[in-house]
Design goal:
This protein is mostly helical and 148 residues long. The chain is built from five helices and no strands. The chain has a single domain, classed as Ferritin. The protein binds fe (ii) ion.
């Protein structure tokens, strides 16, 4: 069960970092397509913020306390809090960070299945589906050339 707890904490760290970056991009994006990207980043951070709660509560179901400080969460993340630059860099960063979220959720799903925690695995698979969808949307946006 320790492996599962660690994997969930790592997933929570990465989802938090992804959430926070998308929110700062929602604030700081500039340019003629401001409204489009302001809204897109808003939808991304909204989804991710709900996932933070879901992941913390999965940890609690294992009778392990949820993180109680921002430091605890940030230390579990592999995603860097780098400054973004223009909207093209924001999209590229979010696509890469989303891939890091998927990797962390996938590892947690594997650990949940190994621990016989099918309910947790099922929840994680739902989150994986949502992030695969955002991965497609981010890649499609970058490849459309709208990322300049
Ligand atoms: Fe806002």
């Amino acid at each position: 069960m320790d492996d599962l707890v660690k994997a969930l904490q790592a997933a929570l760290g990465n989802v938090w970092a992804y959430y926070f970056k998308a929110h700062t991009f929602h604030w700081n994006v500039r340019g003629p397509l401001f409204q489009q990207f302001h809204d897109m980043f808003g939808a991304i951070y909204g989804d991710a913020f709900a996932e933070v709660d879901t992941l913390a509560e999965l940890i609690l179901t294992l009778d392990v306390p949820a993180p109680a400080s921002l430091d605890d969460i940030v230390q579990s993340a592999t995603i860097a809090f780098a400054a973004a630059g223009d909207v093209g860099m924001m999209l590229v960063q979010l696509a890469a960070d989303n891939a890091a979220v998927i990797a962390a959720l996938d590892a947690a799903n594997t650990a949940a299945t190994a621990a016989g925690k099918q309910g947790i695995a099922n929840t994680l698979q739902g989150l994986l589906d949502a992030h695969e969808k955002w991965g497609w949307k981010l890649r499609a946006t970058i490849n459309a050339g709208a990322a300049g």
